[in-house]
Amino acid sequence: DFFKIDDISFLMESLKRKKLYKFKIQKDFIFRNLITDEIIVGKLIDVQFIDNITDPIQFIIHNLKTTQNIILSPSLYSHNQYDLNGEYFLKKNVPFELIDIKLNENNKDGYYLFLDNNNNKIQKPLVKTKLPNSHFFFKNFKDHEVFLKIKGELKVFKCINISTAIELGDFKLTIIDNDNQDAKLVNYSLSELIIRPKKIYLAISKSSISRKSEVNVMKWLSKKKLQTFIYLKKPVNNLEIGNIQKIDFHSQDFKKGTLKSMKKEKMKYQSIT
């Protein structure tokens, strides 16, 4: 009443909150109730919003065991993605193919069912086994941008190719500088990299040493029109969510290392919070 919001679900739709789940929709997950420990194996079909200010988001799930569609509150469930028929390297350089997930009668535990290279079935406890990234995850890098942190600087590259191999460490990643398509191709084996598939974080440093790479990342975000979370350095109301519309930057600041020169930088974005 204080904010004069009559329709919470309409507000969430207008704020484009569904975009936050863009890369999760139509993916398979293991959902686990944080209170009862009940496990549900299902596909995230869609996200919907209800008129509840404290818990407005609902997952529409296709339960892969019962074949029924159900609705879950994401605040009550953890969810971990998996790739059926994907190869997982549970042991060093030994790929196992995930062929099924079995649940116990009480739906509070179960096991992963894998096949090894000799078609032997391998069981791994569901709750105690942490799945690594499957080979599908790495294959999806091709023709997409990847972020590499090199000597403390976050840079954007484009993945030209992924060369698979029997051993995970021998997978080859071929990339090129996203800002310079005439640059030489660079090859990395996965054994040379630490892969972090979750959110990308860019900290704006006080020093101007990394300023060019920081601005390049922000320009890329602006060009792609991606929703960005911006955390401000203040104790309250310190989060803005929106699309970066414009970046004003004084080129001479690249040559200045003082905090004073940083105050000339301005970043404008379209807030949608």
CATH C-level class of the largest domain = Mainly Beta
Widest sheet: strand ordering: 4-3-2-1-5
Q: Given the helix and strand composition, which structural class is it?
A: mainly beta
DSSP helical segment count: 4
Rounded average pLDDT: 84
Indicate the topology.
Blueprint: H1 8-14, E1 28-33, E2 39-49, E3 57-63, E4 69-72, E5 77-81, E6 87-91, E7 94-103, E8 110-115, E9 121-125, H2 135-139, E10 145-150, E11 153-163, E12 172-177, E13 186-189, H3 211-224, E14 227-231, E15 239-248, H4 259-262, E16 266-271
Antiparallel strand pairs: 1-2, 1-5, 2-3, 3-4, 6-7, 7-8, 8-9, 10-11, 11-12, 12-13, 14-15, 15-16
How do you describe this structure in short?
With 273 residues, the protein is mainly β. Helices cover 11% and strands 39% of the residues.
Walkthrough of the structure:
With 273 residues, the protein is mainly β. The chain folds into 4 domains: 8-81, SH3 type barrels (Roll); 87-135, Beta Barrel (OB fold (Dihydrolipoamide Acetyltransferase, E2P)); 141-192; 211-271, no CATH class. Helix content is 11%, strand content 39%. The protein is built from 4 helices and 16 strands. The chain has a 5-stranded antiparallel beta sheet with strand order 4-3-2-1-5. Strands 6-7-8-9 form a 4-stranded antiparallel beta sheet, with no helix packed on it. A hairpin with a 5-residue loop joins strand 8 and strand 9 (121-125). The chain is flat. The relative contact order is 0.08. Mean pLDDT is 84; it is low at 256-273.
